[in-house]
């Protein structure tokens, strides 16, 4: 039996950030990013959904063990991002604006090499209850 199915693991992390383009003057940064450009930074309670799509293994009934997936996310993503200032503490954002889009892409690029090639990986990241990003789309 070849059942292509998706399994999703949800995790969360809390991070501070500031949206800012260092190539622009302060006025333009404020005009584009508004309150998200506040130099004092601000925090979000991010909700992360990691979706793995693949064939269900006939022996286990699993696509991937959610405990294993959770441990991967914790070790490689949450450990780096949780209770951190993304702009100041996380190397991936030293030269990259930590928008929800860029955070989702960074998370995908961290996890992709850790997931078997024959599985699809999709990231959904909620920055607020009403704003979320999906990558790849
Ligand atoms: N395309 C993007 N637009 C915005 C991003 C982003 O990452 N990508 N980020 C922000 C702010 O950082 C923040 O997420 C917005 O916060 P807020 O305006 O408070 O959003 P809420 O949904 O909670 O509030 P509303 O009252 O519903 O607007 C802005 N844009």
Automatic annotation (TrEMBL):
The keyword Cytoplasm does not apply. Coiled coil: none annotated. The keyword Zinc applies. It comes from the Bacteria. Its cofactor is Zn(2+). One of its GO terms (molecular function) is 6-carboxytetrahydropterin synthase activity. Pathway: Purine metabolism; 7-cyano-7-deazaguanine biosynthesis. It is an enzyme of class 4 (lyase). Its EC number is 4.1.2.50. InterPro entries: 6-PTP_synth/QueD, 6-PTP_synth/QueD_sf. Keywords: Lyase, Metal-binding, Zinc. It catalyses: 7,8-dihydroneopterin 3'-triphosphate + H2O = 6-carboxy-5,6,7,8-tetrahydropterin + triphosphate + acetaldehyde + 2 H(+). Belongs to the PTPS family. QueD subfamily. This is 6-carboxy-5,6,7,8-tetrahydropterin synthase. It comes from Gramella jeungdoensis.
């Amino acid at each position: 039996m070849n059942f292509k199915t998706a399994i999703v693991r949800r995790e969360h992390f809390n991070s501070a950030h500031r949206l800012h383009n260092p190539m622009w003057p302060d006025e333009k940064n404020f005009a584009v990013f508004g309150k998200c450009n506040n130099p004092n930074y601000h925090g979000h309670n991010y909700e992360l959904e990691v979706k793995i799509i693949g064939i269900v293994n006939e022996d286990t009934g699993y696509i991937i063990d959610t405990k294993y997936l959770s441990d991967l996310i914790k070790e490689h993503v949450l450990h780096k991002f949780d209770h951190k200032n993304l702009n100041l503490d996380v190397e991936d954002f030293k030269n990259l604006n930590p928008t929800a889009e860029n955070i989702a892409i960074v998370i995908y690029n961290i996890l992709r090499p850790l997931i078997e090639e024959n599985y699809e990986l999709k990231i959904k990241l909620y920055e607020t209850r009403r704003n979320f990003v999906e990558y790849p789309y």
